[in-house]
Design a protein that fits this description.
The chain contains eleven helices and ten strands. With about 260 residues, it is an alpha/beta fold. α5 packs across α6 and α9 runs antiparallel to α10. The structure holds acetoacetyl-coenzyme A. One of its GO terms (biological process) is fatty acid beta-oxidation.
């Protein structure tokens, strides 16, 4: 598939990097861009050489939200009946390999929601997060009202969603929305370092870890703990578990087979 609204590349033959590329619209997210993003994620997920993916934007904007110009003409029947705005937004949830959001600049509305759909966010010090939909007479429509409270707690989530204010990178890190904040010129180095580190581990353990954390994030505690327990047990059926523990006991570096 030829891409017009994203750029796709591979780093070190192992990390799939997807750059949102509508700079004039601050990477506003429309159906074509989201279709392309979904196709690129699926293609990397199906590629055995790839162990981790990164979604990033420009220095000024990760993404400034769903495309307001495209949305402006829609009525209820279009968005509910045709699901014109967010019909293809959940593709990312079907991706098994880890996806890291590398955020610099604005991550607003659907941009913040897209970053939150990734497995974790590493932010540049110029990043700004927000759910300003209230200013447009709507509410977040791609999971913002659900994922923000899980990430930030109810008080901050209500503050963000009801006032539409932006949160800077320092507040986002303090609040648990992002895992790390680095200088803008170090963002990709830091993100690729994390991605390459993940690529070194057993892919089976990486899948199990991601599925288990998501079980906690998306469901109830008892169910999540039981799911984690079963995945933990299942990994004892892999060669990588034997290798990882033997390597530790014998003070050598593990050589995982399933990478
Ligand atoms: N959709 C479409 N176009 C957008 C856009 C968006 N979400 N955000 C920015 N743009 C466009 C602007 O219209 C402008 O285009 P022109 O040059 O043709 O006028 C260009 O990008 C540059 O933007 P600004 O001139 O506004 O840049 P700025 O630096 O002054 O401000 C900003 C930056 C604060 C991000 C501002 O652009 C802004 O507030 N954007 C809208 C943010 C927003 O409301 N996002 C939520 C969208 S709704 C949503 O996402 C629903 C959902 O949950 C799925």
């Amino acid at each position: 598939m030829a891409y017009e609204m994203i750029e796709v590349r591979t780093e070190a033959g192992k990390v799939g990097v997807i750059t949102l590329n509508r700079p004039k619209q601050l990477n506003a997210l429309n159906n074509q861009l989201m279709d392309e993003l979904g196709a690129a994620l699926k293609s990397f997920d199906a590629d055995d050489a790839i162990g981790c993916m990164v979604i990033t934007g420009s220095e000024k904007a990760f993404a400034a939200g769903a495309d307001i110009a495209a949305m402006a003409k829609y009525g209820f029947a279009d968005v509910y009946g045709g699901d014109y705005i967010t019909r293809n937004w959940e593709t990312i949830r079907s991706i098994r390999k880890p996806v890291i959001a590398a955020v610099s600049g604005f991550a607003l509305g659907g941009g913040c929601e897209l970053a939150m759909m990734c497995d974790f966010i590493i932010a540049a010090d110029n990043a700004k997060f927000g759910q300003p939909e209230i200013k447009l007479g709507i509410i977040p429509g791609a999971g913002g009202t659900q994922r923000l409270p899980r990430a930030l707690g109810k008080a901050k989530a209500m503050d963000m969603v009801l006032t539409g204010r932006m949160m800077d990178a320092a507040e986002a890190e303090r609040s648990g929305l992002v895992s790390r904040v680095v200088a803008l010129d170090k963002l990709m180095e830091e993100v690729l370092g994390a991605a390459l580190q993940i690529c070194e581990y057993s892919r089976l353990a990486v899948y199990a870890a991601k599925e288990s954390v998501n079980r906690s994030y998306e469901g109830g505690l008892a169910d999540g703990v039981m799911f984690e327990r079963r995945m933990f047990h299942a990994l004892f059926a892999t060669e990588d578990q034997k290798e990882g523990m033997d390597a530790f006991v014998n003070k050598r570096k593990a050589q995982f087979r399933n990478r």
